[in-house]
Write a structure and sequence with these properties.
Blueprint lengths: L1 H20 L22 E9 L6 H18 L1 E2 L2 E9 L1 E2 L2 E2 L1 H13 L3 E5 L4 H14 L2 E4 L29 E3 L4 H12 L18
Parallel strand pairs: 1-3, 1-6, 6-7, 7-8
Antiparallel strand pairs: 2-3, 4-5
């Protein structure tokens, strides 16, 4: 059993990495879930969900990530004989990512016993609203893009504190993007290298994804 869930965790991380890599790509596709390469699995079904802004103005950010996650799930096909299925959610309201909509999406996910992992959300303020929902249910989530440091690091100015987002003692939130506390100093160091191209300003230093 432990080996099975370790394998699933590896798959979830891999899906998040592909989603991150596709974050700057096109915006085609990303619709209904596809059965993918199931390979005739018979033991059951595991659903990997995603939560990104995939409609309106924010679709240019969310759809490529969703497409990448779907591609990774479809390519993997099965885990230990269990069929993998992709289930996408849109957290945009009127074209803009919305924390309340994200929390509603996560409520739907936790009510589905087949959903064992989530890739997303894309934006840090949506993560702040969804981490408690997933944490209470023991649902693993991994974001390809959250950068706000207060999601995982405790600083005096953090409100809420990372611990307040986790009502359960077991952490279920992970991310593969470096927090702003790392990206900001890294960009300063890069800008001092003297390369005009590398010294270009980035909004990441000022705002969190």
């Amino acid at each position: 059993m432990q080996k099975r869930w370790l394998t699933l965790a590896s798959v979830l991380a891999g899906v998040a990495l592909v989603a991150a890599a596709c974050g700057g790509g096109g915006t085609t596709g990303g619709g209904a879930a596809s059965p993918g390469a199931s390979g005739g699995a018979a033991q059951g079904e595991i659903v990997i969900a995603s939560d990104f802004p995939t409609s309106g103005a924010d679709a240019s950010s969310g759809l490529p990530a969703q497409n990448g996650a779907k591609f990774a799930v479809d390519q993997t096909g099965t885990v230990k004989g269990f069929k993998l299925t992709f289930l996408p959610f849109d957290d945009a309201v009127n074209g803009v990512h919305d924390p309340q909509k994200g929390a509603q999406n996560f409520q739907q996910m936790v009510s589905n016993t087949k959903v064992l992992g989530v890739v997303g959300p894309f934006n840090s303020n949506v993560a702040r609203a969804t981490i408690p929902v997933a944490n209470r249910a023991g649902l693993a989530m991994i974001s390809p893009s959250n950068t706000n440091e207060c999601l995982t690091q405790d600083f005096p100015y953090c409100d809420p504190k990372p611990s307040a987002l986790r009502p359960s003692p077991t952490n279920t939130y992970f991310r593969i993007a470096a927090p702003d506390t790392v990206q900001g100093p890294a960009m300063v160091t890069t800008s001092r290298s003297g390369s005009p191209r590398r010294a270009a300003p980035s909004r990441t230093a000022r705002t969190s994804t």
